Amino acid sequence: MSIVAEAPGYLQVFSDGSVKRFASETVPDSAESYSDGFKFKDVLIDSSKPITARLFVPDTQGSVSQLPVVVYFHGGGFCICSTTWLGFHHFLGDFSVASQSIVLSVDYRLAPENRLPIAYDDCFRSLEWLSNNVSSEPWLKQSDLSRVFLSGDSAGGNITHQVAIRAVRSKTYQVEIKGLMLIHPYFGSEKRTKKEMSEGAPGDVAMNDMFWGLSIPEGSNRDYFGCNFEMQDVSAAEWSAFPAVAVYVAGLDFLNERGVMYAQFLAKKGVKEVTLVEAEGQNHVFHVFYPKSEATLVLQQQMSEFMKIH
């Protein structure tokens, strides 16, 4: 049995189809546990899949004010990571305090065992769960479902885009999405960008291609609609109904170019508000690797401000 795909330190895929993911430092479920001004617990979104999520709530000390809800999708090339990872946990817990919002961070099923569009299905399912449990889940009693924001990093930014399209088309839930916050979104295409063809790029290109090969449906290529946002059939009316979008990119991120292209694409399609924000001198998903850094605090403030005005 041989290794057919590998992200050293994170993932190995073997010739028999089996997958080995390497353990990262995690924060286990600790229901009703308070830490740094927030409490968290894990909830079950769908037992049949299964899909779980981690719920973060700021310690509002008896306040009765309604709080916006952020539904967050973690990154990891659709193949690795979890909301329980230390970096995600601290970033989202602290963000719930900074933004005074309830955060629902979804653990969707991972590829290659569950290829796209399964991650999209799972994450859209979380909106249905939110709508159905707002009156029965005590930790949602302060939630304002008329002010819901979708967010995610890397592959989670990609998922944010797809869930938003489905939400625009469905209009069946109590959830009203006010804005999207995509952090270092992960997109691609068969056509290479200038950065992808530059000297020194082959290693990054090969790693991205590997993750895409593991996550898109068998027989598809990188012009699959979930990879190449230009290939999806979205009507002018649907684009005009799109919520406000903030795209956060990092100056040293190999995916920076794709994030800029995405923001330009949305603006060209007539999305009513698109904001592009760059963190100069920062790398891909720096907020996960350094959740207590100054750059991460700035990102949390920028996202909080975006939420305040929408």
Automatic annotation (TrEMBL):
It comes from the Eukaryota. Residues 70-287 form the Alpha/beta hydrolase fold-3 domain. GO terms for molecular function: hydrolase activity. The active site is at 154. Pfam families: Abhydrolase_3. InterPro entries: AB_hydrolase_3 (IPR013094), AB_hydrolase_fold (IPR029058), Carboxylest/Gibb_receptor (IPR050466), Lipase_GDXG_put_SER_AS (IPR033140). Belongs to the 'GDXG' lipolytic enzyme family. This is Alpha/beta hydrolase fold-3 domain-containing protein. It comes from Populus trichocarpa (Western balsam poplar).
